[in-house]
Specification:
This protein is α+β, with helices and mostly antiparallel strands and 229 residues long. The chain has helices at residues 16-39, 59-78, 85-98, 105-111, 117-139, 217-228; strands at 2-4, 145-155, 164-169, 175-177, 179-181, 193-199, 204-212. It contains six helices and seven strands, in the order βαααααββββββα. The longest helix has 24 residues, at 16-39. The relative contact order is 0.16.
């Protein structure tokens, strides 16, 4: 049985409240980027030569401040503002800080009126993400589906309150996608037959009912030999 782990799937294992929080964060980033792109004026930045590079209005710094500030606000609303966030933001400002203040891409971009192509792409991406998460939050209001199968594997993920991966063999395919078992839920033994109530949009397990307990390892080996013979 092959197991697929949706590690990068947006909204995986999220509750309705968490999905709305992430949607708000993504929407705020899109709005902030859009506002910065529309309101930005060429005279916000000043062209400086190599001997007067201390100005805070260098084109690279002006652009980086708007972009990084928008991202920081989104991370804050998403609850992802960690101890390394400001350090990473500082590093993200470095390309703009050391870029030439009189020529080059940053200088041309700061002189451009209206949104840049890269800004339009980012606004579209974050807007689409916010919409997708809102749709998932609405789908979470539906009645959960019920599935039954054998637990193949339960794997922890990095983080204290992060949902675990649970792989279930429903008996109708040789490829299965892991479900999200909330961190607060009780563990389920590998090999147990369970009945799960799940939300397919976020692949979250809402409740689990034990149908048949897992057999001891020795009994499973004997059963496998009997089936093979």
């Amino acid at each position: 049985m092959r197991i697929r782990y949706p590690r990068l799937r947006p909204g995986f294992g999220g509750s309705t409240t968490r999905l709305l929080q992430l949607a708000a964060a993504a929407g705020v980033v899109a709005v902030c980027l859009c506002a910065f792109a529309i309101l930005r004026q060429p005279d916000w930045a000043v062209a400086v030569d190599a001997h007067s590079g201390g100005s805070l209005r260098r084109p690279g710094l002006v652009l980086s401040a708007g972009w990084v500030g928008s991202a920081l606000l989104g991370l804050l609303l998403a609850g992802k503002f960690g101890r390394w966030t400001l350090f990473v933001a500082f590093l993200a400002m470095m390309p703009g800080n050391f870029a030439s203040g009189s020529h080059g891409w940053f200088s041309d971009a700061a002189a451009h009126e209206g949104p840049l192509l890269v800004e339009l792409a980012a606004i579209t991406a974050f807007g689409a993400l916010a919409t997708y998460l809102l749709v998932l939050a609405c789908l979470e209001r539906r009645e959960p589906d019920t599935i039954t199968g054998e637990v193949l594997r339960v794997e922890s993920r990095r983080g204290k309150d992060v949902a675990r991966f649970l792989a279930l063999d429903e008996g109708n395919t040789d490829l299965t996608t892991a479900w999200a078992l909330p961190a607060a839920s009780q563990g389920i033994a590998t090999g147990a037959q369970v009945r799960l109530r799940v939300s397919r949009g976020t692949r979250t397990i809402r409740s689990a009912e034990l149908v048949r307990a897992a057999m001891p390892e020795g009994d499973r080996v004997k059963a496998a030999k009997q089936d093979a013979s």
